[in-house]
Design a protein that fits this description.
The chain is of the alpha/beta class. 46% of the residues lie in helices and 16% in strands.
Length: 419
């Protein structure tokens, strides 16, 4: 019993250390940026809370956020965030996910573009085809596979006139797997991939245009119930995906008779498995008879395809600036990570020294002044092992390795084990 009391404090310390490590690791899911951090990063000092939305503005940009929702607006164009903006302006608790702030700063808010666009290789992907008709409207009869092919050819012809190289995943009515479409992006050495679709919904009144890019790793898609995925091939282009998606969507959503449903995120196969920057466009709803009729009109097709072309050219003029910005961000992140690593190492060394000193004091305080030690040599060795384990725990916060076999210690100090 005497030995149990001597090591009770040490065991509690070790168990507490284990709990703290697990707790710290579990709280690192989303990093948040405060109101002041958002304003400083974006260079926006004015903000207005109207009871429903938070609006930030300066001479160039107007950003609107809906607390508790993922919906936001940038200069009138709807985008959907990776995580809901949370908190209140009035009590100072408002915050934006760090990943969304990065996307806004680097990929969404306009920067001075280059005068000339890069001669990019564009791979256009008319959705569906062959045995896969996709969505359809019965009256007038419109099959998605036919509409997407017509739109792709019109977009391709205009891009070629602008000096871009254009390839297609299909140029006729053939069946093509999702794997084959993504593979073509690699074999064609595409600089960007545009998948063209028409939408469908049970609500026959649903209408409007949507643009999709891949969610960042660890975040769900925009659709309710979307599951969180880990890192995918497409995630290495997250900033370029967002720039491409917003560049196209802001032009497409501004065309006449168009309802803006937003730049959204979803883990569609051709987005997550394509190695170059990629977007998926939903031009309208074939389940809506009125919208289906509109999508058959020549003037609508000309306007919509011209908007996509303008968006691609805007991307081509801005991609070099984004390359530089992303490279600078990664350099800053690497520098900050190294500083943080050194800080944690120094913090761990101090904690280890304090833990060792505290353990020494505790052992000295409870050791009776007799010549014969209460602990035999093997027990003293175990005590040293326990202290070393405590130091090891302090040096590895947040790791998934097992920091200590507490069950072994408890068994060793059970009453029937006392020598």
């Amino acid at each position: 019993m005497t030995i149990d009391l001597r090591f009770t404090g040490l065991l509690l310390l070790l168990i507490l250390a284990c709990t703290t490590v697990r707790g710290d690791a579990a709280n690192q899911t989303i990093q948040w940026r405060s109101l002041k951090q958002v304003q400083r990063s974006l260079g926006i000092t004015n903000h207005l809370w109207d009871g429903e939305t938070i609006c930030f503005s300066n001479s160039q940009d107007v950003l609107r956020f809906y607390p508790g929702r993922r919906k936001a607006e940038v200069n009138g164009t709807v985008i959907w965030l990776s995580a809901p903006a949370e908190g209140s302006i009035t009590d100072g608790s408002w915050g934006l996910a760090a990943i969304d702030l990065d996307f806004l700063k680097l990929s969404v808010l306009p920067r001075p573009p280059d005068n000339a666009h890069e001669p990019l290789r564009v791979l256009l992907d008319p959705g569906h085809g062959g045995d896969d008709e996709g969505a359809r409207c019965p009256d007038p009869l419109v099959k998605e596979k036919d509409l997407t092919l017509a739109l792709a050819k019109r977009i391709g012809a205009q891009l070629k006139k602008e000096g871009l190289h254009v390839d297609y995943t299909r140029t006729r009515d053939v069946t093509l797997s999702l794997e084959a479409r993504s593979r073509l992006a690699r074999t064609k050495k595409a600089d960007l991939f545009i998948s063209i679709h028409a939408n469908h919904a049970r609500n026959h009144n649903a209408s409007g245009v949507e643009t999709y890019v891949l969610p960042p790793s660890g975040y769900p898609g925009t659709a309710e119930g979307s599951r969180v995925r880990g890192w995918q091939i497409g995630n290495r282009n997250d900033f370029h995906n967002t720039l491409l998606g917003f560049s196209i969507h802001r032009h497409l959503a501004a065309t006449p008779e168009t309802i803006d449903r937003g730049l959204k995120r979803q883990s569609f196969f051709v987005l997550r498995e394509t190695s170059c920057p990629a977007v998926l466009l939903e031009f309208g709803f074939l389940s809506n008879t009125g919208e289906a009729r509109r999508m058959l009109r020549t003037d609508w097709q000309e306007q919509s395809c011209a908007a996509v072309v303008e968006g691609v050219l805007a991307y081509a003029r801005s991609v070099k600036a984004l390359d530089r910005a992303v490279a600078e961000k990664r350099a800053r992140d690497a520098e900050n990570n190294e500083r943080w690593r050194k800080h944690l190492a120094a913090q761990a060394a101090r904690a280890a020294a304090e833990a060792e000193a505290r353990t020494t004091r505790q052992l000295a305080a409870i050791t009776p002044p007799v010549a014969a030690p209460l602990l035999t040599e093997p027990n003293t060795a175990l005590s040293n092992t326990v202290v070393a384990s405590a130091i090891s725990i302090t040096q590895q916060p947040g790791t998934n390795s097992a920091p200590l076999q507490v069950d072994t210690l408890l068994e060793f100090y059970a009453p029937d084990k006392v020598q």
